[in-house]
Specification:
319 residues; alpha+beta; 8 helices
Length: 319
């Protein structure tokens, strides 16, 4: 908002109102700002810096008891200048932006907070064929500065496939029962068994398999060794731990390998959360984390959800 300064020819009523506001005292506010700002952000991709559409939330606290409001336009202009600058966004630029936000409200505020959300495009190779295609990963960057202490957290969403171990066991049991009915207990011909296994009767679908989502948020150390934003590294680590990330461009050989991987890595949501936690524990550039593994079930109309945190009180909210 603008300063309450009347023009020289302001009516007496306006001058009286301005004087009343300046003489009033106001309760402090934890945060005042804007949310859902449409603004591009320059991000470093493998192909080089790129300007990506983003949604931004920015705010400062208001601790001056004589101030009715803050200067919204100053927050907007500073975000515009820093987020879309020619250099890609990194930890140094985030820190400079937070410093600038507080400097623009010197005497009014002692804390600033910024959240930037966008989709990170990454080109991903197929499992075996050599094809590649694009994936879009939701990314969140949250940074804050309060009384000289600052923090930064990264959040990513990763889609993967999950096959229920119980459902897989029941499918194998169906095949075993059919095998006994077809071949009995005597000697069998290997070629005939192979033909039977390739027939519809020789297999059973695993109906309790579904697309699943891992939501991960990590807190970076206060003084990290590197200044870059390790969004792609975090996504890569999560996909390696889960072993069954969804695919982009595929051929038949890739689909077959995807089926093999799902069979080799059946998991409940609890298993997925533990796999991710073990992977993050092995990364030295992560201070704390919160993980949510949600299996969007094919058997039920509800989701199965597990979460685990390290150093994050309360962890993630279910959404």
């Amino acid at each position: 908002m603008t300063d309450f300064l009347p023009p020289s020819d302001a009516p007496d009523a306006l001058a009286d109102e301005v004087a009343r506001i300046h003489s009033a005292r106001f309760a402090p506010l934890d945060q005042v700002g804007m949310r859902g700002i449409e603004m591009p952000v320059r991000v470093l991709l493998a192909e080089g810096p790129a300007l990506l559409p983003a949604r931004v939330a920015v705010g400062v606290n208001l601790c001056d008891p004589t101030a009715r409001g803050i200067h919204m336009s100053r927050l907007y202009r500073l975000c515009d200048a820093h987020l879309s600058a020619p250099e890609a966004l990194d930890l140094r630029r985030l820190k400079r932006l937070l410093d600038a936000l507080l400097e623009s409200h010197e005497g009014l505020s002692s804390a600033a907070r910024l959240t930037v959300g966008f989709s990170l495009p990454l080109r991903r190779e197929a499992l075996l064929s050599g094809l590649s295609g694009w994936r879009q990963y939701p990314v969140r960057i949250e940074a804050g500065l309060r009384e000289g202490r600052w923090h930064c957290a990264l959040g990513v969403d990763v889609l993967y496939s999950s096959t229920c171990p119980g459902s897989a066991a029941m499918a194998r049991q169906v095949v075993a029962q059919r095998f006994g009915e077809r071949f009995g207990r005597g000697a069998v011909d290997a070629a005939e068994v192979a033909r039977w296994l390739e027939s519809p009767e020789g297999g059973s679908a695993t109906p309790h398999a579904q697309r699943s989502r891992a939501r991960i948020e990590v807190r970076l150390p206060p003084e990290p060794e590197e200044t870059g934003l390790p969004m792609a590294r975090l996504i890569d680590a999560a996909e390696r731990a889960l072993a069954t990330p969804v695919q982009a461009a595929v051929k038949r050989v890739d689909e077959q390998e995807f089926a093999r991987l799902n069979g080799a890595h059946p998991m409940y949501c609890e298993d997925a959360a533990r796999r991710l936690a073990a992977a993050l524990d092995a990364l030295p550039w992560i201070a704390d984390y919160a993980i949510e593994a949600a299996h969007l079930e094919s058997l039920h109309p509800h989701d199965a959800v597990a979460r685990v945190t390290k150093g994050v009180p309360g962890g993630l909210e279910f959404r």
